[in-house]
Amino acid sequence: MQLPDADTLLETLIAQMRPHVTSKTALVGIRTGGVWLAERLHAALGLDGPIGSVDVSFYRDDLGARGLPPNPQRTDIPFDVEDAHIVIVDDVLYTGRTVRAALNELFDYGRPACVELAVLVDRGGRELPIAARYCAHTLPQPLPASQTLELSRDETGALSLRLIDA
Amino acid sequence: MRNPQLDSNGGLRHLLTLDGLPREILTAILDTAAPLTEVAEREVKKLPVLRGKSVFNLFFENSTRTRTTFEIAAKRLSADVVNLNVSTSSTAKGESLLDTVDNLCAMQADMFVVRHAASGAPFLIAQHLIANGRNDIHVVNAGDGRHAHPTQGLLDMYTIRHFKGDFTRLVVAIVGDVLHSRVARSQIAALKTLGVPEIRVIGPKTLLPSGLEAWGVRVFHDMDAGLKDVDVIMMLRLQNERMNGALLPTPQEFYKVWGLTAEKLARARPDAIVMHPGPMNRGVEIDSAVADGAQAVILNQVTFGIAVRMAVMSMLAA
I need a surface site. Which of A46, A122, A148, B51 has the fewest CB within 10 A? Predict the structure, then answer.
């Protein structure tokens, strides 16, 4: 399958978000791909607010079955979540379980005024009632569960999508 | 025999001792603890990792700091915590350790945090659970006799890594009553596993176990020589309650020779850190000016202890 170019998708996402973001919008990236995207969006949209990052390792719903992921990173929310306008940013939207975990984690910091979701690619296969307000690309056919789609970043900072077969 | 601490995939099932625990697991615990230090800064200081699980604190020996930090750690992971004051309960009526355990298993325990005056008690419980096929129940050793205090050793390693970074270039001194100290045994095991090139043990001959050199440490009976140019000083508590016989003359005399004063601390590197597992005997093994001084990281150890115990419990139960 021909994967779309990540930079082109990022431009699409910026264009979708630009009319709706304000100086009050706070971005929260989901580690790791979502954090890279949040940094790029933050610069392109000229936002003032700080960027947050969440690592949902401790909020996953499959800890019992799969164990704790190795080397979890620090969740960093450097702003007051209470009454904040938040956009959660992730590279790929799949089952929706990661977003569910991120929402639960955010609410442990306070009660935001609203939370939206921005993703680069929707690969289909949702298992929860979660939808992205901003989505640069939806795959025409859902990917099979055996395949992993993820964003990678090389040493120059260039972003690209990768498809990995299990 | 397989290491009873590990499951068939090499993952952590029980935490009984740091001796023989693979370096990858030791490092994974420290790595997992790092993001957990941040939970204390949240509005809701809780993670859902142990939601619906029951953690039983089984303390057959007194402890305030360890029991409290285990309790806080379990509660921050959303577990239900039951504290058993065993000295006033069924054990006092003659129930055996394993009968107590079986009864608590029947109450749907998921994890036991065990402190016991007898070395090997947590190991006995873990073996009993394994023999009964209860692989879903986990044991954490919170200190057994003179044998081990693994979570203390881990939080000490976390503290050293936090302040000093690379283990492989450090000179670390452990000072005082090593003979009675399970803390020192866990510290030495972990320091060796993490690749500390020089571990020194300093103390009077009567309070150091015989054959200590075989542990791979350098032994000193002189504070000035032992502390020279060290990066980390780990003080031990003088365990008066475990002493029988005339191992030392008086606490005052001990302080004069082995107590850490500013003068003795000056022998170490200027950026050396001073650690103590608590509770401190001020004016016995450590001078107040040092305990409250700029180089002391003793209260950091307590705070890190919560994150490290959260990491251990997360890895066991997840």
Answer: A46
Looking at residue A1, its pLDDT comes to 72
Angstrom CA distances, B110 to B170, B200, B222, B313, stand at 39, 39, 47, 11
| B312 shares contact with chain A (CB less than 8 Å) | no
**pLDDT tens, position by position, B136-168:** 999 999 999 999 999 999 999 999 999 999 999
The secondary structure of residue B243, as a DSSP letter, is: -
Mapped onto helix, strand or coil, the DSSP state of residue B47 is: coil
Structure token digits, residue A73: 């990173």
Query: How does pLDDT run across B33-63, given as a tens digit for each residue?
Result: 999 999 988 889 999 999 999 999 999 988 8
| Chain B residue with the nearest C-alpha to that of A58 | B49
> Distance between CA B156 and CA B149 in Å, rounded?
11
Q: Is B173 on the interface with A (CB under 8 A)?
A: no
Structural tokens at position B65: 């700091």
Query: Half-sphere exposure of A39 toward its Cβ, with a 13 Å CA cutoff?
Result: 10
Query: Which pair of structure tokens corresponds to residue A51?
Result: 């960027």
Q: Answer whether residue B14 shows pLDDT above 70.
A: yes
Q: Which residue has the tokens 């066991």?
A: B316
Give the C-alpha separation, B192 to B135, whole Å.
30
Q: Are B4 and B123 in contact (CB under 8 A)?
A: yes
The crossing angle, in degrees rounded to 10, of helices B298-317 and B65-76 is 50
Q: Which of B167, B180, B225 minimizes the C-alpha distance to B200? A: B225
- Please answer yes or no on whether B43 and A109 come within 8 Å at the CB atom: yes
Tell which B residues from 22 to 81 touch A, by Cβ distance under 8 Å.
28, 31-32, 34-38, 42-44, 46-49
pLDDT score at B8: 87
Q: Per-residue pLDDT for A66 more than 90?
A: no
Angle between helices B150-164 and B298-317 (to 10 degrees): 120
Q: What is the 8-class DSSP label of residue A2? A: P
Please give, rounded to a whole number of angstroms, the shortest distance from the CA of B272 to a CA of chain A.
27
Q: Do B318 and A59 touch (CB under 8 A)?
A: no
Q: Is B232 helix (H, G, I), strand (E, B) or coil?
A: strand
Q: Could you tell me the domains of chain A? A: 8-16+23-65+73-141 (3.40.50.2020)
A55 CB near a chain B CB, below 8 Å?
Answer: yes
> Which residues contact residue A8 at a Cβ distance below 8 angstroms, ignoring those fewer than 6 apart?
none
For chain A, give the longest Cα–Cα distance.
43
Residue labelled with tokens 């953690």: B55
What DSSP string runs through A56-95? GGGG-TTHHHH-PPSSPPPPB--S--TT-EEEEEEEEESS
